[in-house]
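Reminder to self: tokens first, then the designed residues, so the page reads top to bottom the way the pipeline ran.
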């Protein structure tokens, strides 16, 4: 019994150190010849380590994707408590980045390439840097739209042989 307790204790300590302290995911306790409560305890330790491993690996995979510009993945693990809060926060962040990216790309294509003037990015529910970036993209699109429309107005008057008009809108806010 003492040998079994010592073996179990050493395995639990090893797995706790590997997974919980050293960050070596995937560790499992191996206690041979156990049954009953000892097997239940070993299985519980392995379940905790396995659950933590799968959660951290899934979060890591998505975070690496974000860092590499891949916004196509979400965290899909079954999670509860603080890990579920972290999962929801990261997934919401990804959705905000997707929306921001889509809106900015649309405005850039409309105003900058297709010359469809007046385009504005509409990104709801963001704050901080994403809100500032959205405001800056919209300001840029508004300024460009105003400038192109003013150039068009003056060009039209010149085409009508009215040389009295000047371009007067080149202000940058």
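Designed residues (173 positions):
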């Amino acid at each position: 019994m003492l040998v079994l307790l010592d073996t179990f204790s050493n395995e639990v300590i090893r797995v706790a150190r590997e997974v919980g302290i050293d960050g070596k995911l995937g560790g499992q306790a191996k206690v041979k010849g156990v049954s009953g409560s000892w097997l239940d305890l070993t299985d519980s330790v392995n379940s905790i380590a396995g659950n933590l491993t799968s959660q951290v690996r899934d979060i890591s995979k998505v975070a690496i994707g974000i860092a590499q510009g891949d916004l196509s993945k979400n965290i899909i693990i079954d999670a509860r408590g603080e890990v579920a809060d972290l999962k929801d926060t990261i997934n919401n962040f990804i959705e905000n980045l997707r929306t921001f990216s889509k809106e900015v790309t649309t405005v850039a294509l409309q105003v900058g390439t297709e010359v469809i003037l007046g385009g504005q990015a509409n990104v709801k529910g963001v704050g901080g840097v994403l809100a500032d970036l959205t405001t800056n993209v919209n300001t840029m699109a508004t300024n460009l739209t105003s400038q192109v429309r003013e150039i068009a107005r003056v060009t039209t008057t010149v085409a009508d042989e009215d040389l009295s008009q000047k371009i007067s809108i080149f202000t940058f806010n």
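The longest helix spans residues 81-113.
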